[in-house]
Amino acid sequence: MSEGKYSQVVIIGAGFSGLTMACQLQNQLKEFDYTIYERSKEVGGTWSANKYPGCAVDIPAALYSLSFAPHPGFSKLCPSQAEVLDYFHEVAKRYRVLEHVACQTEWEGAVWQESSRTWSVRLRDLVSGRVFHHECKILISAVGALVNPNSFDLPGVDSFCGEIVHTARWRDGLSLRKKDVVVVGNGASAAQLIPAVIHETKSITQFIRTPQYYVPNDNFDISAFWKAVFRWIPGFLLLFRFLIFVYLETAMAMIGLGQQGSRSRLVASSKSKAYMTGSAPEKYWPLLVPEYEIGCKRRVFDKAKYIPCLQNDRLLLTNDPIVAIQESSVLTQSGKAYPADTIVLATGFSLTHWDVDVRGRGNRSREEHWKEFGCIEAYQSIAMNGFPNFFYLLGPNSGRAHTSTLFAIENHTHLILRVVRPILEGRASSVEVKRESEVRYNQQLQSAIEKTVFTDSCGTYFNDSRTGRNWFIYPWSSFQLWYSTHWAGLDDWSYEATAPVESCLRPEKSLLQLCRCRIDSSVRQGIYHGY
Ligand SMILES: Cc1cc2nc3c(=O)[nH]c(=O)nc-3n(C[C@H](O)[C@H](O)[C@H](O)COP(=O)(O)OP(=O)(O)OC[C@H]3O[C@@H](n4cnc5c(N)ncnc54)[C@H](O)[C@@H]3O)c2cc1C
Ligand SMILES: NC(=O)c1ccc[n+]([C@@H]2O[C@H](COP(=O)([O-])OP(=O)(O)OC[C@H]3O[C@@H](n4cnc5c(N)ncnc54)[C@H](OP(=O)(O)O)[C@@H]3O)[C@@H](O)[C@H]2O)c1
Ligand SMILES: *[C@@H]1O[C@H](CO)[C@@H](O)[C@H](O)[C@H]1NC(C)=O
Ligand SMILES: *[C@@H]1O[C@H](CO)[C@@H](O)[C@H](O)[C@H]1NC(C)=O
Ligand SMILES: *[C@@H]1O[C@H](CO)[C@@H](O)[C@H](O)[C@H]1NC(C)=O
C-alpha cells in the first residue's frame, strides 16, 4: 500500500458493510478509486472477529448473503461462522476488493475541509504506531454496531491465573477441554458456545442477569441434490430467498403495541415459554422465563439446542452476581466461590464504536450534533446535517432484530450511492441532508418506536443508557425500508455545485435512474444550505 494520501472514497471497516459499499461503487458507479481501512488483521468484520466454538448465522444464508453474489453452495440452512467468512472472502476476491484494503489501521478522526470540500481522515498504523492522514471526497463509516466488546472489570481480575476471553476476541487454539469454565452472559453468543463445548469441559458455570426468550428452532443440512437445484434451476434460489424473507417479515406483527401485536406476542411468548419449561429442568424455570414483552430484545433462535443442554449435570446456571475474581475461582454476592480455569465473557458489545472524533462544518463534532438532537441519530440512518459527504452504513437505527441485517446494509448502500453519484461524477462538490429533513425524520422515527415493544424495559443493548433512546432498531417493515431507500426522499438533500452544472439540472425521467442527475434546485442558485 502506497502512502495513499488521496482517493475519491474512504471506507472505514471491512465487514459486510464495507464490502457491499466497495462492490457497489465498482458495479454501479464504476468507481475504483477507494480505500478501505480496517483495524483488524483480517477482513470479514463480525465473521472474522467471532470465532468462538459454535458461532453461526441464525438467519438462513439464502437471505443472509448479498443479493448481487448469490451462493448456492452453503452446506447448511444456517451455516457456521467459518462458512460465512469463506463466502465473504470469495466475494471480496471476485470483486478484487482486497487490493483496496489496508488492515491493522485504525480510524482515529476526520475533519471536513471547507476550502477543498474534502475530508481529512486521521489514521493510525497499528503495527508501526505511525499516524497519517488520508484525504477523500466521500467518507463512509462502516464500523459495524456490535464490534467493541463490553468491558469487564471486577476486583481481582489481575490475580486470575487462567485466561479471560470475550466471545468476539476468541484466541486461536484456545481449548476448554477438561476445564472448569465460567461463562458470563446468556445472549445468542452464549447459547451457541455452550452446546458446542459442554461435552469436553469439566464444568460450566453460567452467570446470567436478565432472562432471554429462547425460541425453538432447527437447522438443516443442504444435500448435494438441493445444492444442485439451487445452482442449476434458474430463479430457484431467488424464490427460496424471497420466501424466507416474507416468512421472517411476519415477525413484524409482533412489535406493535396494539391488539394485533399483543395477540401475536402472546402466541410467540407461550411457544417460547413452553419450550423452556418443556426442555429445561424445573429448578431453572424461575431463572429462565422472562417477564418483559417478547420481541423487546432480539429473540434467541435456539438452533444449537442450548435449552436442552441445561439437563447436563456439567452445566450450572445461576443469577448470583459475580463480585470478585480470585486466582482460580469467581466469588459471588452470596459468598459462594465457583471454580474457574477459564472465564468466557459472552457479555455483548458496548456503544463506543461511534466515539471517533468526526468534525463537520464549522469544526462541529458529531458528539455536539447528537447532544443537540438529544440522542444518537441520523437521517435515514445514513447522514447528518453539517457533515457533508459523510455517510453511515449500519448507522443509527438501522438494526433489524427479525431479519437479515444485510438487507439494510444493501439498501442503505443503494441510497448512499444515489445521493453521492453527482459528487463522484464531478457534477457537484458536496451533498448534505437538509436540517429540517433530519429533524422530521427523527421525529417520525421516535414516534414510531414509541408505538412498539422496543420501549419496554428489558435491559437490551438497543437502549442508549445515557439518553434512554433506542439507538439500534429500525421500527418499520423491510418493505418500508426498501421503498424509502429506493424511491423516497430526493428533496431532502442539498447539493453544492461545481461549475458548470447546467448539464445536470434536468432530472432524468427513467424511473430506475431517478437519482442520476437530480440535483436540488438550490444548486442552481448557488446556495447550498437549504435552510
Ligand atoms: C456473533 C454475531 C452473530 C451475528 N449473527 C447475525 C445473524 O445471524 N443475522 C444477522 O442479520 N446479523 C447478525 N449479526 C449482526 C452482524 O454484525 C451484521 O449482520 C453484519 O455482519 C455487520 O456488518 P458490518 O460490516 O456493518 O459490521 P462488522 O462486521 O462489525 O464490521 C465492522 C468492521 O469495522 C472495523 N472497525 C470498527 N471500528 C474501526 C475503526 N475505528 N478503525 C478501523 N476499523 C474499524 C471492525 O474491526 C470491523 O471489522 C451478528 C453479530 C454478531 C456479533
Ligand atoms: N447469529 C446468531 O445466532 C448470533 C450469535 C451471536 C450474537 N448474535 C447477535 O449479536 C448480538 C450480541 O449477542 P451477544 O450474545 O454477544 O450479546 P447480548 O445479546 O448483548 O448478550 C449479552 C448478555 O450478557 C449479559 N451480561 C452482560 N454483562 C453481564 C454481567 N456483568 N453479568 C452477567 N451477565 C451479563 C447481558 O445481560 P443483560 O441483558 O442483563 O445486560 C446479556 O444477556 C445480538 O443481537 C445477537 O442476537 C447473533
Ligand atoms: C476544532 O475543535 C477542536 C476541539 O475543540 C480543536 O482542538 C481544534 O483546534 C479545532 N480546529 C479548528 C480548525 O478550529
Ligand atoms: C435491498 O435489499 C434486498 C435484500 O438484500 C435486495 O434483494 C435488493 O436488491 C436491495 N436493493 C438494492 C438496490 O441493493
Ligand atoms: C434505558 O436506560 C435507562 C437508563 O439505564 C432507563 O432508565 C430506561 O428505563 C431504559 N429504557 C428502556 C426502554 O429500556
Task: Describe this entry's structure for a reader.
The structure is a single chain. This protein has 531 residues and is α/β, with parallel strands linked by helices. The protein has three domains: 5-148 and 350-442, FAD/NAD(P)-binding domain (3-Layer(bba) Sandwich), CATH 3.50.50.60; 157-213 and 256-345, FAD/NAD(P)-binding domain (3-Layer(bba) Sandwich); 497-528, no CATH class. Helix content is 28%, strand content 19%. The strands form six sheets. Strands 1, 2, 3, 4, 5, 6, 17 and 18 form an eight-stranded mixed β-sheet that branches. The longest helix has 21 residues, at 259-279. The radius of gyration is 24 Å and the shape is globular. Mean pLDDT is 92; it is low at 499-531. Bound molecules: flavin-adenine dinucleotide, NADP nicotinamide-adenine-dinucleotide phosphate and 2-acetamido-2-deoxy-beta-D-glucopyranose (NAG) (3 copies). Residues 12-18, 37-40, 45-46, 50, 55, 57-59, 64, 106-107, 142-144, 146-147, 189, 353, 356, 393-394, 404-405, 409 line the site of flavin-adenine dinucleotide (FAD).
Q: Count of helices?
A: 14
Largest sheet: 8 strands, mixed
As a whole number of angstroms, the C-alpha radius of gyration is 24 Å
What do the pLDDT scores average to? 92
Number of strands: 22
Please state roughly what percent of the residues sit in beta strands, choosing from under 5%, 5-15%, 15-25%, 25-35%, 35-45% or over 45%: 15-25%
Q: Could you tell me which ligands this complex binds, including any ions or cofactors?
A: flavin-adenine dinucleotide, NADP nicotinamide-adenine-dinucleotide phosphate, 2-acetamido-2-deoxy-beta-D-glucopyranose
Rounded to the nearest angstrom, the distance between the terminal CA atoms is 42 Å
What general outline do the C-alpha atoms trace? globular
**What is CATH's topology name of the largest domain?**
FAD/NAD(P)-binding domain
* Assembly of the depicted chains: single chain
Kindly provide the name of the CATH class of the largest domain: Alpha Beta
